[in-house]
UniProtKB/TrEMBL annotation:
It comes from Robiginitalea aurantiaca. It comes from the Bacteria. One of its GO terms (molecular function) is DNA ligase (ATP) activity. NCBIfam families: DNA_lig_bact, PRK09247.1. It catalyses: ATP + (deoxyribonucleotide)n-3'-hydroxyl + 5'-phospho-(deoxyribonucleotide)m = (deoxyribonucleotide)n+m + AMP + diphosphate. This is DNA ligase (ATP). InterPro entries: ATP-dep_DNA_ligase (IPR050191), ATP_dep_DNA_lig_pp_1105_fam (IPR026333), DNA_ligase_ATP-dep_C (IPR012309), DNA_ligase_ATP-dep_cent (IPR012310), DNA_ligase_ATP-dep_CS (IPR016059), DNA_ligase_ATP-dep_N (IPR012308), DNA_ligase_N_sf (IPR036599), NA-bd_OB-fold (IPR012340).
């Protein structure tokens, strides 16, 4: 734990990317192999289930510090991070008889600890907290809370591991993909010498597009680009290897069992095929809305009724492996040609498979592209994708070859009604906001009805201004939440909108965020709930 805590201290106190990469690389060169595996797991969001409820950690920390619960909660709201709060308030002992605890030993205890009684869990935690330094206690508690954001992306972690091992960064990115278990795999098996049989289920690292901010004319001739709609579903890779089918989401979650209708592709597709595409709801033979797809998300068991009501298809737009060969380095034109050949072979069988190809649009001018983009919402797409014809399939988000030209978002002017403190570096500011729109109640009076929450879109200077105003205009407090005087109007942008029985407003929005602060408007000039509902397609 000492070595990993020291690493976290270096990462936490350094703002330079190169220094962070150097610290990680040195750690990967010197740490025990078992700790390296768990460190890779933590930084790529793979952790065992949380063994202790965080409310218990709060109670035990307050008890050990000798402070009342209300003081702990007030401290937590100011600090903004539970592990940091506990690390600060728990008193340290200068001498301890506890043996040093490694990160692999700590996380290795989690499965057994989860089965312990509450008293046994408490004894385990209190045995270790006092004998640790601040950063050791912070790391130890952070592992228990389940979240571990320390400003290191998986891309930076992979770059550091590449420097430490001398293995190509893109090859490492591929080796670290998939559903590996840090408790069951060694550093040698994962990084240095992975066995071929362990690779057959692995997806390739996803290639991500950048948003197009300039006019499309800045990209040159339209003939250099393949254009298609940006489908509003779940990005996925479908793999058929060794007569087995695997379906991976972009978040590296194995979701094969959630979409059993795709299993028919195991025999239909040739062995050694990897397709990149979008999982889409497909009721009545047409693309449905993302709201339809949400009913299928996260289900471990899918009923026949749900499969019938909301069937899904994979709309493929790239072929990454062809006849067992990795073809990502080939031009996009070549990969699309092979994808078409593959799907033509399926269509020739006369059978109806839950797989089709994203249409390549024939658009000779950028004005034609603009007109097609304007038709996106009626096709249940988010806009257009622009992909350079000669582009290889790369790793991660790279500028230049893939662009997403999304539709302008929906917008509505809403009133700020509630606020909550942020987290981490924003824990001393009220930055998480709730917004409302006007609606007529049963008495025929206008009242504000909550419809969305948002916490991004303002500058740091604007956040400080709003925070100062909130502290002076609080009407009521509900734990960390404050009710404020309805006064400020903000333009809220969002990507999608649909009817919802789960929300008081009757409307659900996707990805709401603050577009601008409307200082020119009074709260009475904000939009109504009926205005919002008129935006529903």
């Amino acid at each position: 734990m000492e070595a990993f805590a020291n690493l976290v201290r270096q990462l936490d106190t350094n703002t330079r990317t190169n220094a962070k990469v150097a610290a990680l690389a040195e750690y990967f060169r010197t740490a025990p192999d078992s700790d390296k595996v768990w460190t890779i797991a933590i930084l790529s969001h793979r952790r065992p289930p949380r063994p202790v409820n965080t409310s218990l950690l709060r109670d035990w920390a307050a008890e050990l510090a000798g402070i009342p619960d209300w003081l702990f909660e007030e401290s937590y709201h100011i600090v903004g991070d539970l592990a940091e709060t506990i690390a600060l308030i728990v008193p340290s002992e200068t001498a301890t008889h506890n043996p040093p605890l490694s990160i692999s030993a700590c996380l290795g205890h989690f499965p057994a600890l989860k089965q312990y009684s509450e008293a046994e869990k408490k004894a385990y935690v209190l045995q270790h907290w006092p004998g640790m330094t601040y950063y050791q206690r912070f790391v130890f508690t952070k592992l228990f809370t389940g979240g571990f954001r320390i400003g290191i992306s998986q891309k930076l972690m992979t770059r550091s591991l590449s420097q430490a091992t001398g293995i190509d960064e893109e090859l490492l990115a591929y080796r670290l993909m998939g559903n590996w278990d840090p408790a069951r795999i060694s550093f040698k098996q994962l990084v240095l010498e992975p066995q071929q049989e362990e690779q057959h289920s692995k997806p390739f690292p996803f290639y991500l597009a950048y948003p197009l901010e300039d006019k499309p004319e800045s990209l040159g001739s339209p003939s250099d680009w393949i254009m298609e709609h940006k489908w509003d579903g779940i990005r996925a890779q479908l793999i058929v290897r060794n007569k087995m089918l695997f379906l991976w989401s972009r978040g590296e979650e194995l979701v094969t069992e959630q979409y059993p209708e795709l299993q028919v592709l195991t025999e239909a597709l040739p062995d050694g095929s990897v397709l990149d595409g979008e999982l889409l709801p497909y009721p009545n033979g047409t693309v449905g809305s993302f709201k339809d797809l949400q009913k299928r998300l996260g289900r471990k068991k899918v009923s026949p009724r749900l499969m019938k009501d909301i069937p899904v298809i994979l709309r493929a737009y790239d072929l990454l492996e062809w006849q067992g060969q990795d073809i990502r380095s080939k031009p996009f034109d070549y990969r699309r040609e092979k994808l078409k050949l593959l799907l033509d072979q399926l269509r020739a069988t006369g059978k109806d498979y839950p797989l089709d190809e994203s249409e390549v649009l024939t658009l000779s001018t950028w004005d034609d592209a603009r007109q097609e983009r304007e038709r996106s919402r009626e096709k249940h797409s988010e806009g257009l994708m622009l992909k350079r014809r000669d582009a290889a399939y790369r790793t991660g988000r790279k500028k230049g070859d893939w662009w997403k030209w999304k539709m302008d978002p929906y917008t509505i002017d809403a009133v700020l009604t509630y606020a909550m403190r942020g987290h981490g570096r924003r824990s001393n500011l009220f930055t998480d906001y709730t917004f409302a729109l006007w609606d007529e109640n049963e008495k025929g009076e206008q009242e504000l009805v909550t419809f969305a929450k948002a916490y991004s879109g303002l500058t740091d200077a604007e956040l400080r201004q709003v925070d100062a105003w909130i502290k002076k205009n609080t009407l009521d407090r509900f734990g960390p939440v404050r009710s404020v005087t309805p006064h400020h109007v903000f333009e809220i942008a969002f990507e999608g909108i649909a009817h919802s029985k789960r929300h008081k407003s009757g409307v659900a929005t996707r990805f709401p965020r603050i577009l601008r602060w409307r200082k020119d408007k009074s709260p009475e000039e904000a939009n109504s709930l009926s205005d919002l509902k008129q935006l529903i397609p």
